[in-house]
Design goal:
It is a single chain. This protein has 17 helices and two strands. It is mainly alpha-helical. A hairpin with a 5-residue loop joins strand 1 and strand 2.
Length: 392
C-alpha cells in the first residue's frame, strides 16, 4: 500500500470524520423512516417499507428454493452439465443473502431488525475505512468528504447483497493486506473470502486474485501452507462450476438489454460514430470501456425519473472515484492493481452499475483524492511560479 506516514488513531480529524459518518447515516435512517425517499423507479425507500428493487423477488425465489427444493437445485446443475444445451433452467442467487433475509424474518415482513443491522454495518464499515484511510496519510479534509459521500450512505437503506458483500470484502482486504500475517488474519480473510463466494458472483474475481498470488508464491518458492493451496483450489473449482451458468445468462443479457449513454454494448462493438469501420469499431469499443467506467463510478444519467438534485448527489462520489480508478493503475502497488483489475473485469465484460463499486470505493477514493491533491498542488505551484516570474 502507499503509506504517507502513520497517524495515531486518537487524532481529532479521525474522531470527527467517524462521528460525522455515523451521524450522517443515523440521520438519513431516521429521516427515511418518516419521509421515504424515492428510488430511480419512483418507489419509496424506507427502513419501514419492503424493498422496492426488482431483484428482491429473485432473492425471495432463491430462498424458497434453498429451503424447499434443494434436490431440484442439484438436478438443475446436473442437467446443465450433462446436456449439450447452454441454457440453464433456473438461475439462483448465492445462498448467503437469502439465508440472512430468511433467518432475520425480513422475507416474512419483519423489516426493522435487519434494517438496524444494515445501519450498524454501514457505520462500522465507514469507521473501519476512515481509520484505514487515515493510516495511509489521508488529510482530515478528505476524510470528511469520504464520511458524507451520498451513494454509500444510500446503500444502507437498500437491504440487498451489496452492503453485505462490501462488509465481507472489507474484512477480507484489511486482513489479507495486514502488515503481519498471523493465524487470526489468515482465518479472517479465508472466512471472508468463502462468505463472498456465497454472496455475489463477482467474488470469483477476488478468488482468482488469491489463487494467482498462491501460484506466484509457489513459483517463487515462498512458504505457502498446504491448507491454502487445497482450500483455494477447491473454492476455485466449485465456484467456477456454480457460477458458469450465471455467467452465460448475464453475458447474454448485458450485450443486448443494458445501455450506456443510449447504446447497447452490441451497438458499440458494431460502431456508433458512422466512420469507416477500421476506425469506427476500435474507437467505439474504447468508448464502451470509458462509458462502463463512468457508469461503474456513478457518473451517469438516471435510469428513471429521478430529480436532478438526487442525480447530482448520487454522482458526487464519481468525481473522486473515476479519477481514482485511473490513478490507481499508475500509483498503486502491483498487488492492488491486479486485485482491482480482476474486480473490474466482470463489469467490463458484463453489466456495469454503480452499486458494484460499494465494496472497493474506499480504495478508489484514496487514489482519487491522492491524484486530485497532487494535481492541485502542481497547479498552484505553477501559478505561483508564473506570478513570481512576471513580477518586476
Amino acid at each position: 500500500m502507499i503509506n504517507h506516514g502513520h497517524t495515531e488513531s486518537g487524532d481529532t480529524g479521525l474522531r470527527v470524520a467517524i462521528a460525522i459518518a455515523l451521524l450522517a447515516r443515523l440521520g438519513l435512517f431516521v429521516f427515511a423512516m418518516y419521509f421515504p425517499i424515492p428510488n430511480e423507479q419512483g418507489e419509496p425507500v424506507s427502513p419501514l417499507l419492503p424493498p422496492a428493487y426488482f431483484d428482491y423477488n429473485f432473492y425471495l425465489r432463491s430462498l424458497t428454493r434453498y429451503t424447499s427444493d434443494p434436490a431440484g437445485i442439484v438436478n438443475d446443475f446436473l442437467w446443465f452439465y450433462g446436456s449439450a444445451s447452454s441454457r440453464f433452467a433456473h438461475i439462483i442467487s448465492g445462498p448467503a443473502f437469502p439465508i440472512v433475509i430468511g433467518v432475520t424474518g425480513f422475507a416474512r415482513g419483519v423489516l426493522l431488525p435487519l434494517a438496524l443491522i444494515y445501519l450498524a454495518a454501514s457505520g462500522l464499515l465507514a469507521a473501519a475505512w476512515i481509520y484505514w484511510l487515515r493510516r495511509q496519510g489521508m488529510h482530515a479534509g478528505w476524510l470528511l468528504v469520504f464520511a458524507v459521500l451520498p451513494q454509500p450512505i444510500w446503500f444502507m437503506l437498500i437491504v440487498s447483497p451489496d452492503l453485505l458483500f462490501a462488509a465481507e470484502f472489507a474484512s477480507f482486504f484489511l486482513a489479507y493486506f495486514a502488515a503481519k500475517q498471523t493465524r487470526a488474519t489468515r482465518a479472517i480473510w479465508t472466512l471472508s473470502l468463502t462468505l463472498m463466494v456465497l454472496t455475489r458472483p463477482n467474488s470469483f474475481s477476488i478468488l482468482l486474485f488469491v489463487a494467482a498470488e498462491t501460484a506466484w508464491a509457489i513459483i517463487r518458492r515462498r512458504p505457502v501452507t498446504v491448507a491454502r493451496v487445497i482450500g483455494t483450489s477447491f473454492l476455485l473449482i466449485a465456484s467456477a462450476l456454480y457460477l458458469y451458468p450465471y455467467f452465460l445468462t448475464e453475458m447474454a443479457r448485458a450485450g443486448r438489454v443494458l445501455t450506456y449513454f443510449g447504446h447497447t454494448p452490441a451497438e458499440y462493438l458494431a460502431g456508433i460514430y458512422g466512420l469507416p469501420a477500421w476506425l469506427d469499431v476500435p474507437l467505439s469499443a474504447l468508448s464502451l470501456v470509458v462509458a462502463k467506467a463512468l457508469y461503474f463510478t456513478g457518473l451517469r444519467a438516471s435510469y428513471g425519473a429521478t430529480s436532478d438534485l438526487l442525480v447530482l448527489a448520487r454522482a458526487a462520489g464519481g468525481l473522486v472515484l473515476f479519477p481514482g480508478l485511473l490513478a490507481l493503475f499508475v500509483l498503486a502497488p502491483a498487488r492492488i492493481k491486479v486485485l482491482i483489475a480482476l474486480y473490474c473485469l466482470p463489469f467490463l465484460l458484463g453489466p456495469a452499475q454503480d452499486r458494484y463499486y460499494l465494496a472497493v470505493y474506499p480504495i478508489l477514493f484514496f487514489y482519487g483524492a491522492t491524484a486530485i491533491s497532487v494535481a492541485a498542488r502542481s497547479l498552484f505551484t505553477n501559478a505561483d511560479n508564473s506570478r513570481r516570474a512576471a513580477a518586476p
